[in-house]
Write a structure and sequence with these properties.
- This protein has 301 residues and is of the alpha+beta class.
- Helices cover 42% and strands 12% of the residues.
- The protein contains 15 helices and seven strands.
- The strands form two sheets. Strands 1-5-4-3-2 form a five-stranded antiparallel beta sheet. Strands 6-7 form a two-stranded antiparallel ribbon.
- Strand 3 and strand 4 (46-54) form a beta hairpin.
- The protein is globular.
- The termini are far apart.
- The model has no long low-confidence stretch (mean pLDDT 94).
């Protein structure tokens, strides 16, 4: 069981930095136990489980890992926790952004270096509620993943590309995943090597690489590369809620479109995802006027 200790270069909010990797409550590949975060990944060296805990006294981060991918995970621990990220690259142009950064100084952009790990659950989130996507991810990992290395028995590592390709159509249906989303995932895993190469590209090149796969558009690419690359400018376009939240937070107006959101975030060019993240952390959202979108279940059809 290899271990590593690392001291961040500045404040680090471990839970908010890594929390974006969790796909809903009950995610079989992510867990929180007290002050520890656990993550099960399929690395280039094989499955691995990483346990990360921040020591409150001196800011030190202690980590342990298990499995064939253990050394790979520990070697990339600083990168995962935002060592290469520069929060100071953003200049606050709005009071709400300034206040959010002041209140959350330890939020960094995680960089996993793993594309499929973020791409597949993001495809599952296309055009459905979060609850539906989280349920699909949970069921697919429980039925087709493998037990994660290490002491936590309930954790699972997602299938390898061949494992995803061998999932029969009725299993996708049982998990509530329609043919459009499962088809996009299957096309991506058939090009797994080229997808993972995007982790070593700049944002523009990585976006082109991902969107060359039918069924993967700008929304999916941005949500994936925010995690795989820790890309500070990978702003999500095409989201149902984000433009409305950004518009309301910055102007007090409702019904902001994608184009209007991009205009509002233009002063943050190069840091638009980071700015949006800080605005979301502010908690300023438009009051709900309509009932929550109903959850569908194609598995019942």
């Amino acid at each position: 069981m290899p271990a590593r200790t690392w001291v961040p270069p500045g404040p680090l909010d471990l839970h908010r930095t890594l929390g974006v990797l969790q796909r809903g409550p009950g995610d079989p590949a992510f867990a929180v136990r007290g002050g520890e975060l656990w993550r099960a990944s399929r690395t280039p060296q094989g499955p691995g489980t990483l346990r990360v805990a921040a020591a409150a006294a001196d800011g030190r981060v202690d980590a342990e890992a298990w499995g064939p991918g253990a050394e790979w995970l520990l070697e990339r621990l600083p990168e995962l926790l935002g060592e290469g990220d520069d929060p100071e690259a953003l200049t606050a142009r709005h009071r709400i952004v300034h206040e959010a950064r002041r209140r959350h100084p330890g939020v960094r952009l995680a960089r996993t270096g793993l594309v499929l790990e973020s791409l597949i659950p993001t495809v599952l989130e296309q055009k459905v509620t979060s609850d539906e996507a989280y349920r699909a991810w949970r069921l697919l990992l429980q039925r087709h993943g493998e037990p994660a290395p290490g002491p936590w028995e309930r954790m699972r590592v997602m299938p390898d590309p061949r494992g995803w390709a061998l999932i029969p159509s009725w299993e996708w249906h049982r998990a509530g995943v329609d043919a459009k989303r499962s088809g996009a995932i299957l096309r991506a895993v058939r090009a797994a090597r080229r997808m993972e190469e995007a982790a070593r590209m700049d944002l523009a090149g990585a976006t082109r690489r991902l969107t060359a796969i039918p069924g993967i558009g700008a929304w999916t690419a941005a949500e994936t590369l925010q995690r795989a690359l820790g890309a500070p400018d990978a702003i999500t376009v095409g989201d149902l809620h984000l433009p409305k939240i950004i518009g309301y937070a910055l102007t007090g107006r409702r019904g902001t479109t994608d184009e209007e959101m991009l205009d509002l975030l233009a002063p943050y060019e190069g840091q638009r995802h980071r700015a949006a993240r800080l605005i979301l952390l502010s908690g300023r959202v438009p009051p709900r006027r309509a009932p929550r979108f109903p959850v569908g279940d194609i598995a019942r059809l």
